[in-house]
Amino acid sequence: MKKIVMAAAMAVGMAGAAAAQGTQQPPVSLQSWGSFHVGGREVVISGQPVREVLFSPGGVPARVDPNGTYLMGSMYAQYMIPANPRGRAPILMWHGGGLTGVTYETTPDGREGWQHFFLRRGWPVYVSDAVERGRSGWTMIPEQTGGSHLLLTVDNPFERFRIGNGPGSFARGEVLPGNQFPADRESYMNFMRQIVPRFTTTDELSLEAYLALLDRVGPSVVVAHSQAGLFGWRAAQERPDKVRALVLVEPATVGDPAKVAALRDIPVLMVFGDYIAQDSRWPAIRANGIRFAEAVRAAGGSVDVVDLPERGIRGNSHMVMMDRNGDQAAGVIQDWLASKGLYQ
Tell me, what CATH number does 94's domain have? Predict the structure, then answer.
């Protein structure tokens, strides 16, 4: 990896962002900053008709033959390596369903995200876009995706991510009492601009890409949110030598029950926000996670569970890292990682 010093550029960019927020943050010095793609599989398509396509108005039509070999299922990752690392392993940040790595880069109201929080504390940070999202590209080959894509309406995350106070709350503009998500219309629409189409049928493609990322980066701390909880559990089970610790932020599902023993030597932290007991879905989701954690413990593993309200951190939505008190939750993760000997 080529090492370059980006301190000046980062100082200007972050200082400008801080000024816009009315706060002043110190500059961050980097030894390197870049991106790459990993993973993917070659797929051969045949039997499709040749078409004539006009790519630009006023141009000349081109003959396009859709038959041939395609590369699908690759994944984008961006890395920032601090000048003086203190984390004993890189942190890989994996986002949830219908989202991209922007989840960790910034908040809808313009604050620094968890990418910056951990970078400022000396962690090498890798933020990725999952397969079929963001800068990882897109494919519409139904034989490979196994289904059609899903895109969320504007009111869906407001009411499903424990921001709004029940059905119809988006239309009413009513948030849950004390909720910390920046839910003013401008901020919420900034959040909706991040929502992208997703498949519910490409989990194996996604897992392949996450494993390729671990193979390239090496032993890492994995921070996985929501849908990515599945990939965090499964990646740790498939590459136990590559996962130094697993942090699951409101994981939406569990790993492979037949492979819990593979998690024996990997410390795991599960973090849950607020308003879970009164939600229609999250009590069952959390209970499933706790049962899986108990199975891991029974196999000799270590799983710590943090319910943020019990730590005095209240009002968190499903998007914990974007909440106004998200840095408090990040602080819990930071302290836990330090307690596991992963920070110097």
Answer: 3.40.50.1820
| Model pTM score | 0.92
Using DSSP's 3-state secondary structure scheme, residue 45 falls into: strand
Whether 128 is covered by a domain: the verdict is yes
pLDDT tens figures, 239-277: 999 999 999 999 999 999 999 999 999 999 999 999 999
CA distances in angstroms from 325 to 7, 18, 180, 322, listed in the order given = 28, 17, 7, 8
Residues in the chain: 344
Those residues with Cβ within 8 angstroms of residue 55's Cβ, 6 or more apart along the chain or in another chain: 62
- In sequence order, what E strands does the chain have? 30-45, 51-53, 62-64, 68-82, 91-94, 125-129, 220-225, 243-249, 267-272, 302-307
Q: At what angle do helices 203-217 and 228-238 cross, to 10 degrees?
A: 60
Cα separations in angstroms, 175 against 61, 279, 291, 309, 321: 52, 13, 31, 18, 18
Structure tokens at 301: 């593993």
Of 35, 112, 162, the residue nearest 330 (C-alpha): 112
Concatenated DSSP letters of 310-329: GGT-----S-GGGSTTHHHH
pLDDT tens-place string over residues 140-197: 677 677 777 888 899 999 999 999 999 999 999 999 999 999 999 999 999 999 999 8
In the chain, the number of structural domains is 1
How far is it, in rounded angstroms, from Cα 157 to Cα 213? 29
Cα-Cα-Cα-Cα dihedral sign, residues 180, 250, 111, 189: negative
Residue located via tokens 């000396």: 122
Query: Could you tell me if residue 19 is inside a domain?
Result: no
